[in-house]
UniProtKB/TrEMBL annotation:
Stated name of the protein: uroporphyrinogen-III C-methyltransferase
GO molecular function: uroporphyrin-III C-methyltransferase activity
GO biological process: methylation
E.C. number: 2.1.1.107
Organism domain of life: Bacteria
NCBIfam families: cobA_cysG_Cterm, PRK06136.1
Limits of the Tetrapyrrole methylase domain: 13-221
Main enzyme class: transferase
Involved pathway(s): Porphyrin-containing compound metabolism; siroheme biosynthesis; precorrin-2 from uroporphyrinogen III: step 1/1
Keywords: Methyltransferase, Porphyrin biosynthesis, S-adenosyl-L-methionine, Transferase
Family, as annotated: Belongs to the precorrin methyltransferase family.
Organism of derivation: Roseovarius ramblicola
Length: 258
């Protein structure tokens, strides 16, 4: 349960999931909190359509991170959240997707607890769920896979290490977040541990947004296909899952532009 504030601050900080991008995929609770916020501190994955829902007088602050790129230090983000909260402002910390998945939620919760500030956590539609919907698939299916692994492509030390032997087994399905730059690394580890070269690999860029794009390839062709596609937006990568009915295949788009 969220702690009670030790100071005169009585409005809990809201740690809110913005979903995959479209404002129509916000939860009703998220929408209400954004519309009543005094301060919105958002990451780089939150779309402009969602940010425009904040009141005109609200203080909207970008505090994003990019893998292997520019980033606002977590300590600075924590200070922004607690500093504004101490003034009595209604603070919304807005994160793309679901804040409980690779959102450094625990670090921000720890900062709020240390400051004696109450909080609530509002889940959002995850990138994995949105990407699975985009390719017409279920994350799990009877007779195909009874579980799915949610993994990160990189961590604070660089490319993330995983149980490659387990991931290489036939029928395994995994959703990789922040994995574009780790493609060749992950491919090498999987094939080293016996993964089949024709294992399906699917990337969904900007899932559930108007500019959504889908790249369907195989483990063997993954890095060159990714380079050819030139994906620049945030993308989720599925290992072991192919599209049933892709709405806009990257390969078709490349052929049309050629």
């Amino acid at each position: 349960m969220p702690i009670q504030p030790a100071s005169r601050h009585v409005v809990p900080v809201a740690l809110v999931g913005a979903g995959p991008g479209g404002a129509d995929l916000l939860t009703i609770r998220a929408l209400r909190l954004i519309e009543s916020a005094d301060v919105v501190i958002h990451d780089r994955l939150v779309s402009d359509d969602i940010l425009t829902l904040a009141p005109a007088q609200a203080h909207v602050i970008a505090a994003g991170k990019q893998g292997f790129g520019p980033a606002t230090p977590q300590d600075a983000i924590n200070a922004l959240i607690t500093g504004h909260a101490r003034t009595g402002a209604r603070v919304v910390r807005l994160k793309g997707g679901d804040p409980v998945l690779f959102g450094r939620l625990e670090e921000e919760v720890a900062a709020l607890e240390a400051a004696g500030i109450a909080y609530e956590i509002v889940p959002g539609v995850s990138a994995a769920s949105a990407a699975a919907a985009a390719i017409g698939q279920s994350l799990t299916s009877r007779g195909r896979n009874s579980g799915i692994r949610l993994l990160t492509g990189h961590d604070m030390q660089g490319f993330a290490d995983h149980d490659w032997r387990a991931l290489a087994r036939p029928g395994e399905v995994a959703a990789l977040y922040m994995a574009k730059r780790a493609a060749r690394y992950v491919q090498g580890r999987l094939m080293m541990h016996g993964a089949a070269p024709d294992t399906p690999v699917t990337l969904v860029e900007n899932a559930a947004r108007p500019d959504e794009r889908i790249l369907a390839t195989t483990l063997a062709d993954w890095p060159p296909a990714l380079n050819e596609a030139g994906l620049t937006g945030p993308a989720l990568t599925f290992l072991g899952l192919a599209p049933r009915a892709a709405r806009s295949r990257i390969s078709q788009t490349i052929q049309e532009l050629a």
